[in-house]
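New to this. Please check this protein:
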Amino acid sequence: MASSRCCVSSLLNCFLICVILWSHLSDAVFDKSNRRPNIVLILTDDLDIAMGGLSPLSKTKKLIGDAGITFTNAFVASPLCCPSRASILTGKYPHNHHVINNTLEGNCSSKAWQKTEEAHTFPALLKNFANYQTFFAGKYLNQYGHSEAGGVEHVPPGWSYWVGLERNSKYYNYTLSVNGKAQKHGADYSKDYLTDVLANMSLDFLQYKSNFQPFFMMVSTPAPHSPWTAAPQYQGSFNNTKAPRDPNFNVHGKDKHWLIRQAKTPMSNSSVQFLDDAFRKRWRTLLSVDDLVEKIVQRLEDRGELDNTYIIFTSDNGYHTGQFSLPLDKRQLYEFDIRVPLMVRGPNIKPNQTSQMLVANVDLGPTILDIAGYNVNKTQMDGMSFLPIMMNSSSWRTDILVEYEGEGRNVSDPACPLLGPGVAECFPDCVCEDSYNNTYACVRTISPSANLQYCEFDDNEVFVEVYNVTADPYQLTNIAKTIDQEVLEKMNHRLMILQSCSGQSCRTTLFIHKLMLNIKV
């Protein structure tokens, strides 16, 4: 009997060893084309495209852009961090996810957001229904970690591994939530510089994750957001660089909304020096992002996983430094604030491609779900998968919606008492970047026959701005009063449709023909 038990035990052990060996061999031997792809999303903070924001990112352009596809017409649904990030996570326009600004009261990482939207984000769908292991590191939403929103103990659903920054972007002296436990960091570059910490944690995940599930990894860097703290080795870079002096730099927006008209033109020398200094600092912080991208790509290559991994690089909004005499910020409806970089490499994407198709950040979630094999039509997302574009399909939408709800203070800024209440972000020289009635919605249209932007403000004037971006790429001339009335009515009608759309109705394509023939500039 003892001999029989010993024999059975030996056979069982042999069987288990064979199963383990077979599982390892099958993972390595079976055709990799049958394996679901991995996905990496690298999200920067306030990185523009219009002012040369990709210039410091030479390695990123080579490793992602040159190795795949670059989208030249990529836009955000709202040019502000929290609403834009909510659109990325949910695939929805702001009027459907209800995050309107960077405050708790504006639904940024609020309890209401957690109850209504957070469980339905694309990472939650990847983890719960597509069996992906998911990893997050970096800035999430601006109010994440707030005591009134669950503190750092709150780990959003959908993440297998969670490293979330408490509140807004910093480079030193911050707190991370590591799977719900606070991890405090100081000001020692070797241990605490946030961009490098995120890079190292990402590399650790790639090294120690399971090899038997596909993965999704989202790395959300602080750069190039203020306070623009560069790594020590890069603090002397770009010393002779200045903000671009494009045609819309330091000029008066005389035919624009009153908030733009209130900017002081020409800007003071001190304001110009301030924005030039900020511009240089922004670029310096990006050099560490470039290093992060290189490290992640190299680790994927070392592990033999690069060929089966999609890597997406983008930003949550653009930025301006001196355009229309606004010193520096985002929030405005113009190309410099709403247009962002977008580059993708991955399986079956041919290198050195450029696409002029119109994509928005509400499309990121649907695209990632599509890559993972999840049916986007099962969701309530407003965006569309642009995976077919990357595979050379030509049929696509021609317009998107951009929405922003302005913010203002209830009381006057003590530094600018003459301005009165209702404005915000009034620096330097008491030039305000925002106000309560800086609330607008735009239709951004790009088709073979039209490259237009139509915007309406929710103010007493119902102020309208319209730009023919082909003829006027710097948006110097508002043609709202000279454009053909029929075109104006069509754009107004399309805006009303998009402002009330939800899910599938937002994905309905609209082809605008012969609009350009009716434009009088």
